[in-house]
Amino acid sequence: xxxxxxxxxxxxxxxxxxxxxxxxxxxxxxxxxxxxxxxxxxxxxxxxxxxxxxxxxxxxxxxxxxxxxxxxxxxxxxxxxxxxxxx
Length: 87
Known about the structure:
The chain has one domain (3-85). 23% of the residues lie in helices and 47% in strands. It is built from two helices and six strands; from the N terminus they run E-E-E-H-E-E-E-H. The radius of gyration is 12 Å and the shape is globular.
């Protein structure tokens, strides 16, 4: 199994684009916490990356928040780091 990790930057940015065996595998955004100051930026970045790579689901990793956001048929699951790392 061969994995590669990239950074996505167009209008917005997304922290991790993970390829597994040369196929898109996961899209991951990371922030300490989602709040009024960064919510728009973080969500725009992950949804732009999901649309670009034609994926339906991505993950936003935070310190301890859990949530789910939907836009245009795509889903961004917000998970605490301890939950993400346990999988």
